[in-house]
Design goal:
- The chain is α+β, with helices and mostly antiparallel strands.
- The chain has 10 helices and 17 strands.
- A 6-stranded mixed sheet has the order 10-9-8-11-12-13, with helices on both faces.
- A hairpin with a 5-residue loop joins strand 1 and strand 2.
- Helix content is about 30%, strand content about 25%.
- It has a single domain, classed as von Willebrand factor, type A domain (Rossmann fold, 3-Layer(aba) Sandwich).
Length: about 350
Amino acid sequence: MTKRYLLFLLISLGLCSNAGVDATAQDSGRILVNVNLVQLNVAVTDNKGRYIQGLNPQDFIISEDKIPQKMATFEEGNGPTRSLIDVAPPPAGAPLMQAATNPAAPGQSYRSGTEQQGLSSQLNGANVFILFDTSNYMYRGFAFAQDSIADFVRSLEDANKVAFYSYSRDLSRAATLTSDRSQVLRGVRSTVAGDDAALYNCLLLTVKDTAHYTGRKVIVVFSNGPDNASLVPPEDVAELAQSTGTVIYMISTQLARDEPVSTAVFERMSKATGGKAYFAKSWRDEARAFASIRDDLAHLYTLTYYPAANQNRGWRRITVKLAGKDLQKYHIRTRDGYRLQQAQSSSGFAPVSSAELDPK
């Protein structure tokens, strides 16, 4: 237990603290992080799971530790980023589709010039990290899984950047974050089946990588079985993902589904970060799961805010609700909080093995 606590403490010292933070480069291998912008990726669906489009900023109510928050920017899907700072809200009762059909609605405006372009370049699209299980669980169906991942990479919109990692006992960064799809596809095809599965070790290291980026950050995990080699508990990984604003989607085969502990962990971890868990019985189910994630990314609302004064220096609980009786029938999915952390150092992007996780 002491070893696990020390392990998590050592790792957390290298992590940024929240989605949408400003990261200022310092000397080599170090970054200074100021938590002054919180980003939320929000899915809104009806009772049948269909996405609700065309919502406006005034349709969302955000609170942090029950303290009301003022939205700073608003974005739907990969659409333009709308700045709401020092701009009056749109008139009450505005039509639902107004944001999609008339983004420059009365009472709202866009920032112009380089300021708006810089904001849009940070928030538009998503940074998608794919983490592929190449452990000895993957001997069956390996080629089908590669095909599903390759199709997913090709299907992502141009606004998204993609990284491809694989894991067994160690983490391999086959393709770091890039807009070059061919580089990612080469990484996918170069993978081979390997050793035991240290999923939570390697997922933690992937979350650490996402902390270097602003904007929408997503990890898509493809796992074929339970974790049998990690040193860190999945609860620590989930909390760090929440605190860096990283959404985790889990795709696993029926082999993991048959292991109740893994099923519960995968579902709990994805839900805590605002993502989803999928359990595929066949390669067709795998393809459908990747398609569902692609659709989710295209329909997420991205909301940001500068936190109001709050004395809480630990875990901060976030609540997002829809305003008005007409919208109460819809469902919201997003992360439910983050842990405030001090600016810390980071080890950068050198190749990493799970041996780094051992404090000895």
